[in-house]
Write the structure tokens for this entry.
Amino acid sequence: MQENISQPLVIYNTLSRKKELFEPINPPFVGMYVCGPTVYSDVHLGNCRTFISFDLIYRYLLHIGYKVRYVRNITDAGHLEGDNDEGDDKFAKKAKLEQLEPMEIVQKYTLGFHEILRIFNTLPPSIEPTATGHIVEQIEMIKEILAAGFAYEINGTVYFDVEKYSKEYSYGVLTNRKLEDLLEGTRELSGQDQKKGRLDFALWIKAKPETLMQWPSPWGWGFPGWHIECSAMSAKYLGATFDIHGGGMDLQATHHTNEIAQSQACNHTRPVKYWVHTNMLTVNGARMSKTAGNGFLPNELFTGAHPVLERGYSPMSVRFFMAQSHYRSTLDFSNEALQAAEKGYVKLMESMKRISKIEPAAKSSVNIDEIRENCYAAMNDDFNSPVLIAHLFEAVRVINSAVDKTETLNASDIETLKSLMQTFVFDVLGLIDESEANAGGEVINGLMSLIIDIRKTARENKDWATSDKIRDELKAAGVEIKDTKDGVEWRI
Ligand code: AMP
Ligand code: ZN
């Protein structure tokens, strides 16, 4: 799609376990579905990693010219405590605990989720459907799966028949596992279980009298299973087969495996062309999760109010920290790694401000087109953001050298460099300059140049008292100014 770039986009597909040329079904349109949060509690930083990774993918696809319909759902019903279709509904449990209506729980945590993703500067999806808003579509899909013979009803609960399905299709395609191996990993059915097969999962669950959220269905009052919501909503908004389906790697073995089975049973076609999975954020090597209790919240990270944190870190340092690792690698949280990322982020932002100080020369001593090509090549190689960042730091070196006049750039290369940095740092990596954003942008820039001018005049008049007062009081207000051979630089 993009011009002047030799290398086309390749994406690693979990289904084929290799990188594949990205060829959307109906270009330039791209359908992308990402499993969204379960909104019965706050999202932790691990969840944010997944959504920020898909934001980078979304931003890059938009940048290279695709028209992306990005659907990210909100799971607001159907999530049970146990893995075996038993246990309480998590929403009901939380509602009882907080003495709220289940929909108050949903509203509270959905708003919190939006706010956190706004702070991380992620773009909103094109459609954000909720499970409770699509009960009818889920019931319809279950009816079709029953009619096709791949499900059965027992006492108001409908189960997907994995054994029957496996006679026609490969149930373990996504994880490349045979049915026998999958069966080995599950417990024997007990007398308590009403389902027929150990791998069978619920499509519809019969409500108990005390179930807080329940709907009428052909099988009586109940609520949908978790997996069916994503199959029903992705098919509704993106069609029976669409381009990209994403989520964290923890969803592969069960949730996404079951999604494939449901869609295949209903539509007789594989629902997704490219399955994309992001790796986990870990803390001391262990996956960050709601149940493990090792998940700190983004707000704790910003303020430093958590025992694991030495101090607070700004949202953009955290976003930069995440972009420094590839989305398919695990990322281990540590204070040292975040502090290093913070330094890198500040260096990047400072160099962006310095571009305007480069004086054009007649000839360039550096090949800017090559750096530009390398940036695209990195992103076209399965969205390799760490390699992209390495090339951006080569650009930073060029900017600093050009300001110091140890390298030269002609006027057109300066423009290319400027647009390259704008594109990749702001549009693709989704970073914002916090010193400007926090400072109220333009206004503060104007005020700062006025203050710096007054200080300059004071120094020319040898009025050291005024000059020192300006520097000290700015410092007390959190603004640091530095005298360099190119003039005065400042940062918050
Ligand atoms: P949940 O709200 O638990 O359903 O999770 C929402 C999304 O976050 C899913 O795509 C998960 O795969 C993902 N996720 C959960 N834990 C982590 C983690 N530690 N690191 C990265 N992604 C995660
Ligand atoms: Zn899902």
